């Protein structure tokens, strides 16, 4: 974004207008479903199918949705869930990434291969066996059961390993000479230098697990452990019949924290996703 | 010297241990257990699982719903991936260029990515609703007959493909944007000096240079198309008549509606084989270009 592009200066203006029109058409089409949802959520039900510009705005749909299901509890559950997963991921990935980046031990390459496998074969598809495991552990229907399969993140390990490898070894050696232990070196030298990567990873992880649905749907069974996504599905499939205004309001409400966060920190979001994607 | 080396090795292992144990417990063990359990019967009540050889696979070969889900998944991948990649490239070029209103366009393209798939599915469910939905109102405005997009076997899968494209194109745009921003402006200048048109510049210069990104996105898109079924659960439940059932959705149904865990294990083995093949292709062929060191 800091280097506005090139091509349009060098190749004539003829196609430029046409392309602008196409870009805008696509942009409008892309925002249309969301705009329609916002319209429905902020207007009385009789306007959900009548697009009148002067229609009065209302927050009643949100109030109705909030009172119709334990959304406060769902918000709390999701908040606890993503915090727990992120904390575990940061600690475990940091330790493992440091090991892969700076230690030479027998079996390292094979272990790294095992880690990379998780990029392809993720817990998301191993629902039947992981359900059995949680049953055996007696963890079914708990927040811990939702998060546990995601604590060790191949993506996090890989991303941090790449970052740690770029840290000059001299910095580590200097700290070692002063008598720092491996853990101290990790905390004082490596972690501070990787801050932007941690931020990027955190944003990606939080938005991923805020949105996760299938596994929580399977493993939870009560209000006490349901995250927002599952709560929303239970709410909109059973309680409401076809009151679209309320369902849409609930839908926007559950995505609101991410959406608002995205609107406020758009640049950071986009750059984080970029940073996490470059390999 | 040897003692230091030993200590070095032990520290390396200890740092790795916590993550590795969890990985083994929730990724590698269940993958292997899936294969193992697919050769047994489903335990029922007091009757424990017994070895049945390849019986589950024989059932699978004769199961029309399995084949339909697999084919649906293939159509779903073929329907979503090329189109969302093409759109992602176009979006990235536009957002990276000097088009008026770039800020709005980037926002509009990328926002669906931030939304939970389940929210997206709810929004589109309303969008597609017969009689009330916006789509019906638009087609009705042009005097077209009413159509139940999600309720007819011929359009249900297509309607879901559209939702997936809407959700994913903006996500893939990010990777292209990252790649474009690392390209030297000299390339465009040189191409213009040589008298190349913008079209030629794209196909002869940009597109080949974007190839590593395209391969990376391709693999991710392929995995996603086999991994994500949230929208199926919300919008069609695999229906009507299994017309929109995908492989993972069928596994979910067999495993948690019919509670036939052995058959679900056999189905999961197929899914793992698909993902494993993808992984093999990626590690074997693609990673020669993008290096992990």
Description of the molecule:
- The complex is a heterodimer of chains A (279) and B (293).
- Chain A is mainly α.
- Chain A contains 15 helices and no strands.
- In chain A, helix 11 packs across helix 15.
- The N terminus of chain A is likely disordered.
- Chain B is mainly alpha-helical and 293 residues long.
- Chain B has one domain: MetI-like (MetI-like fold).
- Helices cover 73% and strands 0% of the residues of chain B.
- Chain B is built from 13 helices and no strands.
- In chain B, helix 1 crosses helix 13, helix 4 packs across helix 7 and helix 10 packs antiparallel against helix 13.
- The two termini of chain B are 27 Å apart.
- The relative contact order of chain B is 0.13.
- Classes of the chains: A mainly alpha (279), B mainly alpha (293).
- At the A-B interface, helix 1, helix 2, helix 4, helix 5 and helix 6 of A face helix 1, helix 3, helix 4, helix 5 and helix 7 of B.
Query: How many extended strands of chain B?
Result: 0
Radius of gyration of chain B: 24 Å
The chain-level mean pLDDT of chain A equals 84
Number of helices of chain A: 15
> For this structure, what is the CATH homologous superfamily of the largest domain in chain A?
MetI-like
If classified by CATH, what would the architecture of the largest domain in chain A be? Answer: Orthogonal Bundle
Sequence of secondary-structure elements of chain A: HHHHHHHHHHHHHHH
Whole-number total of structural domains of chain B: 1
Q: CATH homologous superfamily name of chain B?
A: MetI-like
Strand content of chain A: under 5%
CATH topology of the largest domain in chain A: MetI-like fold
Category from helices, strands and their pairing of chain B: mainly alpha
The total number of structural domains of chain A is 2
Low-confidence stretches of chain A: 1-8
Gross morphology of chain B is flat
Rounded radius of gyration of chain A (Å): 24 Å
Model regions low in confidence, pLDDT < 50 over at least 5 residues of chain B: none
Oligomer: heterodimer
Would you state the CATH class of chain B? Mainly Alpha
- Arithmetic mean pLDDT of chain B: 85
């Amino acid at each position: 974004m800091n280097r506005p592009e090139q091509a349009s200066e060098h190749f004539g203006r003829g196609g430029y207008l046409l392309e602008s029109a196409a870009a805008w058409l696509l942009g409008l089409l892309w925002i249309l479903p969301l705009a329609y949802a916002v319209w429905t959520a902020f207007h009385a039900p009789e306007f959900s199918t009548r697009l009148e510009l002067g229609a009065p705005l209302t927050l009643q749909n949100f109030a109705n949705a909030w009172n119709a299901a334990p959304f406060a509890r769902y918000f709390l559950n999701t908040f606890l869930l993503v915090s727990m997963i992120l904390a575990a991921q940061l600690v475990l990935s940091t330790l493992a990434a440091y090991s892969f980046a700076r230690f030479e031990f027998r079996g390292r390459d094979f272990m790294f291969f095992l880690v990379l496998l998780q990029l392809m074969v993720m817990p998301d598809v191993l629902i039947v066996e992981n359900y059995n495991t949680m049953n055996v552990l007696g963890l079914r229907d708990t927040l811990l059961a939702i998060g546990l399969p995601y604590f060790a993140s191949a993506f996090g390990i890989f991303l941090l390993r790449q970052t740690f490898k770029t840290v000059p070894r001299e910095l580590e050696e200097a700290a070692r000479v002063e008598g720092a232990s491996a853990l101290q070196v990790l905390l004082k030298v490596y972690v501070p230098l990787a801050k932007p990567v941690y931020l990027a990873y955190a944003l990606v992880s939080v938005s991923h697990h805020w949105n996760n649905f299938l596994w929580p749907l399977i493993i939870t069974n009560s209000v006490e452990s349901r995250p927002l996504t599952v709560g929303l599905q239970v709410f909109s499939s059973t309680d409401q019949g076809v009151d679209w205004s309320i369902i849409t309001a609930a839908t926007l409400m559950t995505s609101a924290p991410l959406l608002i966060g995205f609107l406020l920190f758009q640049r950071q979001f986009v750059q984080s996703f970029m940073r996490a994607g470059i390999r | 010297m040897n003692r230091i080396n030993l200590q070095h090795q032990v520290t390396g292992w200890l740092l790795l241990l916590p993550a590795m144990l969890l990985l083994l417990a929730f990724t590698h063990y269940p993958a292997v257990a899936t294969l193992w359990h697919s050769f047994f019967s489903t335990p029922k009540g007091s009757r424990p699982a017994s070895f049945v050889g390849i019986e589950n696979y024989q059932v699978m070969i004769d199961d029309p719903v399995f084949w339909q889900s697999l084919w649906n998944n293939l159509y779903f991948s073929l329907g979503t991936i090329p189109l969302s990649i093409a759109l992602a490239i176009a979006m990235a070029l536009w957002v990276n260029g000097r088009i008026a209103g770039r800020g709005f366009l980037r926002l509009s393209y990328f926002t669906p990515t931030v939304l939970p798939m389940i929210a997206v599915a709810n929004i589109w469910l309303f969008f597609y609703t017969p009689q009330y939905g916006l789509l019906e109102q638009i087609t009705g405005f042009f005097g077209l007959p009413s159509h139940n997009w999600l309720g007819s076997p011929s359009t249900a899968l297509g309607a879901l493909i559209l939702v997936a494209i809407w959700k994913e194109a903006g996500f893939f745009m990010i990777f292209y944007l990252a790649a474009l921003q690392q390209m030297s402006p000299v390339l465009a200048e040189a191409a213009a000096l040589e008298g190349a048109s913008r079209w030629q510049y794209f196909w002869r210069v940009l597109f080949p240079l974007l190839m590593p990104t395209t391969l990376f996105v391709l693999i991710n898109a392929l995995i996603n198309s086999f991994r994500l079924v949230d929208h199926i659960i919300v919008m069609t439940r695999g229906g009507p008549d299994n017309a929109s059932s995908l492989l993972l959705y069928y596994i979910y149904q067999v495993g948690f509606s019919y509670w036939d865990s052995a058959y679900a294990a056999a189905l999961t083995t197929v899914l793992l084989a698909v993902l494993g093949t993808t992984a093999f292709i990626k590690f074997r062929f693609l990673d020669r270009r993008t290096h992990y060191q």
